[in-house]
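Incident log, support desk, overnight shift.

02:14 A customer reports that sequence design results differ from what the structure should imply. Their input is reproduced verbatim below. On-call engineer (initials T.W.) acknowledged and began investigating.
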């Protein structure tokens, strides 16, 4: 098996051959009439018209040899087979394709849409143009990127080879589109609040710190989505606001915890937590239907339906049930001892952090949609108390 350096060396020679023949291997524009998905959706019309079309994309596979080859072209919307027959092209064009083209190259192919002998939608190529010569090979077709670290460092290749991951990115975009559409339909104003703050607020987390040269002061990347700013907007007369944005937390990284992530927060004047819970449940049902076309899902062995009633879980009662620790009366040392018994790694020994770590241990044992209620004031300092107070004259 050739090394990466050897493969790259061979491809550079092919690049030089293209230039020797006066062909730009990285042209600014190439022929392209349709997205491949659009072409395939209206394929019967194109086939009957029997007129040439041009498509562009990346070569994902090459099969065959000699007088006929089959190329799989992918443009990000769909894949299509391109048939290259020696008797359909000039000798020079056919030979050059075999000499300089590799899997991973981007090309533009022009030809007549047709069905192959096996009934596959194809293009019988009459000409081609190099769109971008690739100097490195793609991951092996059947296994893709198998090293976890390499997958995350070369995310673009993982996305290219992993159809499920590409679909996930599309669903993520639809998720936020549906969220934005829902919130606006309920009369909420979308806002943008500062991501650089002189003091972090709205959560307990370690921030990223930098320095503002013009003002000569230290600033922090926000750890929540504008909680303090949105509350100021409420004071300014905006009663319903929301923001979809990035938050940053300079803490441990795991498959369940990224240091940079997208979140949504909303604020609603004259509403209480019961109104908020009803809105959130309705929002998730709406998103699920728009993105997935269903509300019932199975994840990690659990099946749940977002359209069912969402149970309410009491913060203190759930921790007591799972750990036998009453957070209202337990001391810091008792919480630390319990976390050590459970084998939980924790950061900090103040009551707030210890309480939050106990909850994070417990929440891993809960499945399905639910609302967590009755947070202690210590871990929700900017929230209103839910203790009812009546006023009489």
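02:41 Re-run completed on a clean worker. Output:
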């Amino acid at each position: 098996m050739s090394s990466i350096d050897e493969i790259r060396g061979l491809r550079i020679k092919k690049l030089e051959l293209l230039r020797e023949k006066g062909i730009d291997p990285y042209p600014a524009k190439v022929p392209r009439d349709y997205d491949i998905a659009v072409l395939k959706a209206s394929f019967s019309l194109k086939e009957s018209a029997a007129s040439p079309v041009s498509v562009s994309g990346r070569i994902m596979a090459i099969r065959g040899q000699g007088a006929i080859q089959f190329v799989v072209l992918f443009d990000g919307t769909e894949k299509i087979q391109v048939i290259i027959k020696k008797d359909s092209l000039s000798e020079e064009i056919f030979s050059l394709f075999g000499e300089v083209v590799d899997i991973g190259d981007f090309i533009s192919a022009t030809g007549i849409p047709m069905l192959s002998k096996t009934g596959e939608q194809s293009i019988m190529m009459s000409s081609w143009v190099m769109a971008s010569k690739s100097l490195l090979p793609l991951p092996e077709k059947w296994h893709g990127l198998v090293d976890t670290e390499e997958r995350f460092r070369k995310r673009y290749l993982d996305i290219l080879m992993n159809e499920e991951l590409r679909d996930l990115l599309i669903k993520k975009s639809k998720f936020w589109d549906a969220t934005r559409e829902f919130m606006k339909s309920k009369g909420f104003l979308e806002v943008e609040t500062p991501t650089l703050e002189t003091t972090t607020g709205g959560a307990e987390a370690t921030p990223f710190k930098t320095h503002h040269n013009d003002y000569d002061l230290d600033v922090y990347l926000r750890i929540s989505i504008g909680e303090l700013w949105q509350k100021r907007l409420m004071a300014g007369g905006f009663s319903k606001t929301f923001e979809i944005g990035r938050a940053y937390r300079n803490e441990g990284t795991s498959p369940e915890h990224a240091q940079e992530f997208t979140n949504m927060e909303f604020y609603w004047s004259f509403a209480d937590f019961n109104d908020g819970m009803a809105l959130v449940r309705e929002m998730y049902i709406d998103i699920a239907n728009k993105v997935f076309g269903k509300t019932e899902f199975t994840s990690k062995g659990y099946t749940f339906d977002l359209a069912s009633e969402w149970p309410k879980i009491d913060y203190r009662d759930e921790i007591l049930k799972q750990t036998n620790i009453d957070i209202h009366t337990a001391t810091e040392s008792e919480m630390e001892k319990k976390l050590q018994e459970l084998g939980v790694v924790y950061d900090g020994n103040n009551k707030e952090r210890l309480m939050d770590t106990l909850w994070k241990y417990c929440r891993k044992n809960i499945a399905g949609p639910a609302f967590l209620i009755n947070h202690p004031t210590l871990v929700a300092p900017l929230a209103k108390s839910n203790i009812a107070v009546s006023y009489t004259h």
